[in-house]
């Protein structure tokens, strides 16, 4: 090889080496400029696109975005749900803004003379508030007797008497606690407390499931959600969004239209495997007069209760539906063995009598109430605060 040829070869090698070094430096500089977390290695067990684990019923367990093991700059920070105390303060305040029923009652009772026309007006007011015929008759009979015996016309005394009788109708002695303690299953092992949420279309059931998950997380409970409304893909997506905000896993179908009972079973199984405290199962909204849909709900109840008894079966009712809501409750009680009621849109309006009517009809308590669109606008029902709000 000539000297000239050797020189050219050495020059070519040098140029290649310099180019390689420059390329490495550029790549390192670009990586350094990427957002934090972009180049982090995948944590073992963390979900990535396409490798979520399928359950026995063809379900997918979706890890909440932003939870431990999540990857990527788009992962949002987990939210801290509001505690029960703060919720109750806010809900009492909202209830107190409205007292249409109490104002109407007190306006009549404050008259100098209560004739039959006045008592008929009181009866009409209570019936329009959806209190129901029997509770209305009972309350007015007691009220007439007490006013006649006491002979009082003092507005403060009459208000106190009305409060006492209304509170009696709401029944503060009913157990309104929510069963959230793990129970022993058929296998002798502890299983999460299963809460089944049922109701007709349009009551805000899926949203209520998400809000309930936040309430339980605020109480330091480990929660798993089951998206057993398999006919609406949006319902499962909605639950996934709620879960991502507070670090709660969601068990959902891997395909639309899957058997909802299978999803419910897989959610209970996943909850037990994860050592969760509570599993909340969302079901599809259904009309109470559709026997096929109610039979399907019965199947969900049977399948979900096989590992361990269902701890709570809650009916979500729109408080503004009045007596129609009462008819809904009767049918769901037969199929789902209801243990409690969740009333949404309970704003202390003149329709608040549905609380008394539904409890009296079914013998089960209103346990939770919703009073707004906010994520934490769900709280335990307080009879005293409710009655005080009605009276203004």
UniProtKB/TrEMBL annotation:
GO terms for biological process: SRP-dependent cotranslational protein targeting to membrane. The chain crosses the membrane at residues 6-27. Residues 365-378 form the SRP54-type proteins GTP-binding domain. Residues 59-68 have a biased composition (Low complexity). Its main location: membrane. GO terms for cellular component: cytoplasm; plasma membrane. Keywords: Cell membrane, Cytoplasm, GTP-binding, Hydrolase, Membrane, Nucleotide-binding, Receptor, Transmembrane, Transmembrane helix. Residues 36-79 are annotated as: Disordered. It catalyses: GTP + H2O = GDP + phosphate + H(+). Its EC number is 3.6.5.4. It is a peripheral membrane protein. GTP binds at residues 199-206, 282-286, 344-347. GO terms for molecular function: GTP binding; GTPase activity; signal recognition particle binding. PROSITE patterns: SRP54. It is found in: Cell membrane; Cytoplasm. HAMAP family: FtsY. Belongs to the GTP-binding SRP family. FtsY subfamily. Involved in targeting and insertion of nascent membrane proteins into the cytoplasmic membrane. Acts as a receptor for the complex formed by the signal recognition particle (SRP) and the ribosome-nascent chain (RNC). Part of the signal recognition particle protein translocation system, which is composed of SRP and FtsY. This is Signal recognition particle receptor FtsY. It comes from Serinibacter arcticus.
């Amino acid at each position: 090889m000539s000297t000239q040829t050797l020189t050219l070869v050495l020059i070519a090698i040098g140029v290649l080496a310099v180019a390689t070094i420059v390329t490495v430096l550029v790549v390192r500089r670009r990586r350094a400029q990427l957002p934090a977390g972009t180049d982090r290695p995948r944590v073992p067990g963390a979900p990535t696109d396409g490798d979520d684990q399928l359950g026995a019923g063809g379900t997918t367990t979706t890890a909440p975005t932003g939870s431990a093991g999540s990857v990527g700059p788009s992962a949002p920070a987990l939210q801290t749900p509001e505690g029960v105390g703060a919720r109750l303060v806010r809900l009492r305040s909202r209830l107190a803004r409205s007292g249409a029923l109490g104002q109407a009652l007190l306006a009549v009772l404050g008259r100098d003379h209560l004739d039959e026309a006045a008592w008929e007006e009181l009866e009409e007011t209570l019936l329009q508030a959806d209190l129901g015929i029997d509770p209305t008759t009972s309350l007015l009979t007691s009220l007439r007797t007490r006013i006649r015996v006491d002979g009082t016309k003092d507005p403060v005394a009459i208000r106190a008497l009305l409060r006492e009788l209304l509170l009696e109708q709401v029944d503060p002695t009913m157990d309104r606690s929510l069963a959230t303690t793990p129970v022993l299953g058929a296998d002798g092992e502890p299983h999460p407390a299963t809460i089944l949420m049922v109701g007709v279309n349009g009551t805000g059931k899926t949203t209520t499931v998400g809000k309930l998950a936040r309430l339980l997380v605020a109480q330091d409970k480990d929660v798993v959600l089951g998206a057993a409304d398999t006919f609406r893909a949006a319902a499962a997506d909605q639950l996934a969004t709620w879960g991502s905000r507070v670090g709660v896993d969601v068990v959902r179908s891997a395909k639309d239209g899957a058997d909802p009972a299978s999803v419910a079973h897989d959610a209970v199984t996943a909850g037990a495997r994860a050592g969760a405290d509570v599993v909340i199962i969302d079901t599809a909204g259904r009309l109470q007069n559709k026997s096929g849909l109610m039979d399907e709900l019965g199947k969900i109840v049977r399948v979900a209760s096989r590992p361990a008894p269902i701890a709570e079966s809650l009916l979500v009712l729109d408080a503004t539906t009045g007596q129609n809501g009462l008819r809904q409750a009767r049918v769901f009680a037969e199929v789902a063995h209801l243990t409690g009621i969740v009333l949404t849109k309970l704003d202390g309006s003149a329709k608040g009598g549905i609380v008394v009517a539904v409890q009296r009809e079914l013998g089960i308590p209103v346990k939770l109430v919703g009073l707004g669109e906010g994520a934490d606008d769900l709280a335990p029902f307080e009879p005293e605060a409710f009655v005080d709000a009605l009276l203004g």
